[in-house]
Amino acid sequence: RTTMKSLRFISAEAFVSNAEFARKSLGAVAHDLFPLLFKASYLLEQGEVIHDLVENWPLFDFNMGKLLGATLDYQEDLSHRTCSVCLESCLTGLRDYVLNQSSPYMKKLKVVDLTGIKDVEVQFCKCKKTMGRWARTQLLSKLCSELLVYLQQAQCNPGTFEISINVLIDLFVTERNYELVVQALLKKCSCPLKICCVAFRSDNLTLQKFFYIIKLTDPSLLRKLEIVHNVHLEMEHLEILFNSIHFPLLMSLTLPARTFNVQRFTGTDEQMLSNIGEKMGEMTQLTELSMSFSILTGRIQKLLSPLKTPLKMLDVSNCSLNHADMAYLANSFHANHLEALDLSGHDIPELYPSTFFKLLSHCSSVLRSLTLEDCNIQDTHVNMLILGLSPCQKLQEFKFIGNPLSSTALKHLFTFLCELPMLKNVEFPVPKDCYPIGITYPIDDANLCRYDHQKYERVAEELNFILLQANREDVKASTPLFGSYDAAVQETNNELGAYLIKSFKETLEKFTTSFNKMS
Fold first, then answer.
1. Structural domain count of the chain
2. Which GO terms describe its cellular component (predicted)?
């Protein structure tokens, strides 16, 4: 598929394709052509031209999402190209914007917005080298620190110290880049480039470090907070966090696995849970909540009923919900607004079939994403599932890996899925008849890949043929056995892997020590 380009865009491409000529001629370029030239340079990966465009940026704002998004001159959205060459040129250009005293343009730049960059699995840039969220956090922090050192040592124009640019960014902090980010945030007041954290993700951090850095980010500006994987945050720590810090603009909250465990609850824990619910109720912008792999049996109402704003996204996968929880969700004011719902890890047909379908009917007019992985959906439930999904005409994504469905049932389901007009992505299970007879569900990791691969390929081809016959080539169907692509996990998997090995080794050493003492 080729995207039409205007004559202006074609001319811009021709201009920037000769980097040496373009860089020499920038001084004669009209201000309003800079955005056009920037997008053309980004498309052609002309790093040097990108650097010089940013270094001499003549406008008040620099918004990556808007600059790379669909424009009249070129409809294609390039914001998902996290090309390392382009992004590094952008950020170093920004540093040199501050230092460049001979630029022919007046320094008007006040806001740089880097939040529109989208990290995706498949990259189309020629260099094939990406700069993910973690690396962008690292580089910007490094450039801010270097800039300060340079300004303190060099003889700079007094006007340089008057430059103040807010750089909006989604920060991603782990143990490995923690010190660098802390230094940049601590010196924010004296640095011309001021990091403004709009979204914050932390992984592989001690609680002490997490609490310290979250206060430095200016939580009053935070819209999204993700605390994941190796941050050992439990309910009492969450209560301390909400009592000590206000998040007035927070729209999205992700909590790590095992934040809540009602099996260990005492009377004071019940009160603590109520307090957390009330604190979340004060976050009037909160519309997205993810708290997977916690044990929340019978407590969903206590946690969610204080919320003043209906949730648009809810992930309660593997949270051991009971009938009362599902009944609350189905009847709550959240139900009519849910655009994304994840109920994975619950035996829906056995525990609460009618209540689930009531919830589905309430959110059907707005639901865009539904995830029902490992929910014990069997062949006998497919007709009922089709009935429940029929009103969900806005559904774009349906994930149901890990369910014991036969290839025949999958074909029946796919024939129906073709009728959902907005559907774009389907993640389906390996058919049950591809596994050895007697396999039990949920399938453990050791047996997950022990299926007839040739038979699976044949079935997958048949399912894709069903889509093809219905003219639905726009639907991507896949079986990511070990979970969907996660850009953040992908980028930091070496660090997280090393951390897990270290934790395992420490646990083993403790066990050996205890065992030796017993002996």
1. 1
2. cytoplasm
Tell me, yes or no, whether 97 lies in a domain: yes
In a domain, 300, yes or no: no
Q: With the CA atoms of 169, 172, 177 and 182 taken in that order, what torsion angle do they form, in degrees rounded to the nearest 10?
A: 60
Residue 347 lies in a domain: no
Contact of 97 with 109, CB cutoff 8 Å? yes
Residues of the domain holding 49: 7-131
**Could you read off the pLDDT tens digit of each residue along the chain, which spans 519 residues?**
568 999 999 999 999 999 999 999 999 999 999 999 999 999 999 999 999 999 999 999 999 999 999 999 999 999 999 999 999 999 999 999 999 887 666 889 999 999 999 998 777 777 778 999 999 999 999 999 999 999 888 777 777 878 999 999 999 999 999 999 999 999 999 999 999 999 999 999 999 999 999 999 999 999 999 999 899 999 999 999 999 999 999 999 999 999 999 998 988 999 999 999 999 999 999 999 999 999 999 999 999 999 999 999 999 999 999 999 999 999 999 999 999 999 999 999 999 999 999 999 999 999 999 999 999 999 999 999 999 999 999 999 999 999 999 999 999 999 999 999 999 999 999 999 999 999 999 999 899 999 999 999 999 999 999 999 999 999 999 999 887 767 777 788 776 666 556 665 666 666 666 666 666
Gyration radius of the chain's alpha carbons: 26
Distance CA 346, CA 325 (A): 12
In a domain, 462, yes or no: no
Nearest-angstrom CA–CA distance, 216 and 185: 6
Residue 361 CA to chain centroid, in angstroms? 27
